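Quick question, first post here. What does this chain look like in 3D?
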Amino acid sequence: MWNKLSSRTKRMLILLMTISAFIGIGQFAVRSRDGTQITSTEKLAAAPANANQPSSESQDGSINADISRKLSEGRKPNRLIKEKSPYLLQHAFNPVDWFPWGVEAFEKARKEDKPIFLSVGYSTCYWCHVMERQVFENEKIARFMNEHFVCIKVDREERPDVDRVYMAAVQAMTGSGGWPMSLCLTPDLKPFFGGTYIPPDRFQDLLKKIHEVWTTDRKQILDSSEKVGEYLQKISSPDTQATRVGKSVLDQAFQTFVKEYDSRHGGFGPAPKFPRPVGFNFLFRYYSTTSDRKALEMSLQTLRKMAQGGVYDHIGGGFHRYSTDESWHVPHFEKMLYDQAQLAISYVEAYQITHDEYFSGVARDIFAYVKRSMTHKDGGFYSAEDSESAINSSKPDEKKEGAFYTWTQKEIDRILSPKEATVFDYYYGIKGNVSRDPRQHSDDENILNAAHSSEDTIGKFHLTSKEVQSLIASARQKLFMQREKRPHPHLDDKILTSWNGLMISAFARASQVLEDEQYLKSAETAAQFILANLYNAESKQLLHRYRDGEARFDAHLEDYAFFVQGLLDLYESDFEIRWLKTAITLTEDQNRLFYDSMRGGFYDSSGTDKSILIRTKEWYDGAEPTGNSIAILNLLRLGQMIGSQKYQTMVEQSMAYFGQVMEQNGESVPQLLVALHFSLSKPKEIIIAGKPDDPHTWELLREVHSRFIPKKILLLADGREGQETLASYIPFMKSITMLNGKPTAYICENYACKLPTSDRATVAKLLAN
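> Answer (accepted):
Ran it through. Tokens below.
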């Protein structure tokens, strides 16, 4: 990207970096390759020792309970108390006179001729908590902020459109980014300073210097803000030449993954290590086409190492955000819905390819965790759980990262029987194993990490495999019951359409492969929740966030794309035609709102909110896939399902728009490569003629679902409304019927079908070719 910038733009960015250095801001948090805040051990050590002072959540993890407690104590809230965002509510009792993002704050800044201090974060962000405790709870600092700035607080998960713009600005000005994100803006919202976590002593000096420059040398600030604005406009519409790409791009990206692979510990690149499921999506599909065992082995080894490590919650299921070390041992303990959704699919696909129940077992544990801890009573899925929690119930405001998840050997041995403890302690390496963790854990604390294999444990104690499994299972259950008595981490209970779409996909696809009706029910109930609470069919308006009875904020590209993907996966799971019809409607709305008909690709936002300085087209597949990657893949699938040439044309234009990115940075866009892989040849069209409640229909489907066939679409000719709807798009569907009154499979390509069959063994042979 740097080499493509003009000399003038380079000079401007160097100037901005110099200004930031002059002001003296220290960068404590940096943005990882997947866009997630990471912090090195050295930089963490620079944080003050009192980082675990009182925070804003209550001991039971409920933000509402915490607010009630503070109000009963007579504490005075600021205007954020009227918001629904858990992150904003965490700051509702700060002495800072916070505004939410909106016209009231902008008008105050213009009227009073003050710069804006913008703080962006999210409710389960560890360093956001630290900055709140150290900076925003400081009365002296708050008085200065209130007098000389208009202060705005933004939840990046509620407003990804705001976050994208200012993250780009911070990265331009400092060379890195992360959360909490701290910026100063002019009243017309153009940034002139940016940073991340700022300790209290530097923060106070920083604000004084900015206030001084604002009042004595305004032109310097305005010139800087104009240059940042120019840069943001430039990167929002980069000069790219339409480029047609093919299989060689997949080969090139695969070689990059091979070079970055850690053959000892699994994963790609050095510590800190992130799961990045989009990489598995690409590698599994590359293997399915090329039969290159390296693609499969790298993926399976990484998935095994992750599930054996401390980044996996061996007691309650689910994965933490990332590992601070190369061996997946010491995690950042935060748990995100989008990680659970995508990793569940990775483990389901690993099982589908290998039929190794180890992978299906991990997937089932993820789903059990989501159903137990992250599901609204009416079906939607919550967003995240915090990394820190109260050390004990009697002191709810004294918190520590990982307090909910770590164990001492004395605790374990007290809870378990002697035999269970002996086996469990050996299997998990219980001996005080978190000394490498920089976040102030004591030497006798343990993060559960499968230090020895089942085979090693069997040999050491001369037990059978069944005995070891039984002892470990009973020990985990006892520890789970004991852990439930601990103060739970804060739960971010907002429901996001985008992340729910990912989780709907996971439950739907798992229901196919693992044959669990409860998974299908979870997917159906969540989809209905979104349609009932976050979608207005009359106005055709999809919204982004639901919490505490309120749906708000226009949906963005990723909301449409991820939810449509969930609906398509749901249709291929239960064959209720309403899901497919809704997916088509939402896709048309998405195309109208976000598609760039001139150049291809999708904008991330609709452009209707004038407070958003630029319309970005995100292409980097990180912790989550981009909206563009999934939207293009959805068009490919839907185009085949309903025979839409218009969708195919949009795909071709969009692929060409991102062609240079795929050529030059293929490893950065693995989900976009999944779409490219799908587009390079016609998918299998698998049509089952039969009644949806006929067990013989599901016998044929069971054969389909038992195989990893990533390039396929799956349709049901049910002789009812579903088939009539499909036939209205593809007349060929009218002719699909059962043979001799038995459910029948048609295996087709471009709707040219092989001989239909009602025999499962014959279906298996047809699918294998």
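The first strand starts at residue 30 and ends at 31.
The chain has a mean pLDDT of 90.
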